[in-house]
Amino acid sequence: GGNILFSSGGGTVSNCVICNCQVDWFGHGAVYLGSTAALLTGCVISNNVANNINSKDGFGVTIADGRVENCLITGNYDNEDQAPRTHNGAVYISGGEMINCTIVNNASRQVAGVQCTGGAVVNCVIYGNRSTVAGGIAAVYGGGKPECFTNCASDVAAINETCVTGLFNFADPERGDWRPQCGSICIDGGTADVVDLAPLDLDGAPRLSANQIDIGAYEFQLEEGAFAASLASSERLALVGEELTFSGHVMPAGDYTYEWDFGDGSAGASGSTVAKSFAAPGLYTVSLIVKSGG
């Protein structure tokens, strides 16, 4: 491993930030797990780079055995100056398991998300990774083992019939906040059928609620009797005159009214889903007021 190596004796690394590691020569990622007794939990693995033509796949995390759980794996990349040699996957898994992790905003010329040739990937988010040459599904996964993924959420396409794609509705991805908000496909989309499931998420909040579990490192938290609302747009950037779709999402389900203000001086709109285009270039703040009671 370029930074942390779990050898045959195993061990635990928890609540750490593992960042800015340069993986040279024959290194396996910033973190390498090679033991059944190895556990990486509650960590952020970010901005690590595979920087040599002899570096191995998995420039963020390499899992040959053991478990990675409740981790955010983001901003790791393959140094394109080393072309044509390509390092596949911010995560490379050939054995062991990866549970409730969020793999986002990583980059490679080929497979940018998860390179999987074995093991198990369960309840994981794979989103916003960039495959700069191969493109397409390589942004999400590679390795020819889609059956190794269970209840995962990915952009581009769903990996298999147990997995999903759709509206992710993260809190603020531009600022690195990958927590799901109301309406996200991640909420209650995971499976609790995991041996020794960690009781807390990456924030230290309870993982299980009414035997429901979210996909990814963060569990959406809504206290009993509380009310939460969020909005989403089909795009954050658009051309003048291009039609956008805005949607409002509320939990728990009920009878609500929706009042939209698009910040451009135009008449507002009502309804949980509305279409809108802007007549002039600019930066617009869209706001939504949700009221209960119909």
Structure notes:
The protein has strands spanning 4-6, 11-14, 17-19, 22-23, 31-33, 38-41, 44-46, 49-50, 61-63, 67-69, 72-74, 77-78, 91-93, 97-99, 102-104, 107-108, 114-116, 120-122, 125-127, 130-131, 141-142, 149-150, 153-154, 170-172, 177-180, 228-233, 244-251, 256-261, 269-270, 273-276, 287-292. The protein is mainly β and 294 residues long. The strands form eight sheets. Strands 1-5-9-13-17-21 form a six-stranded parallel β-sheet, with no helix packed on it. A six-stranded parallel β-sheet has the order 2-6-10-14-18-22, with no helix packed on it. The mean pLDDT is 89.
Q: What's the arrangement of strands in the largest beta sheet?
A: 1-5-9-13-17-21
Total of DSSP H or I helical runs spanning 4+ residues: 0
Largest sheet: 6 strands, parallel
Percentage of residues in helical conformation: under 10%
Alpha-carbon distance between the two ends: 57 Å
Shape: globular
Give me the Rg, rounded. Answer: 20 Å
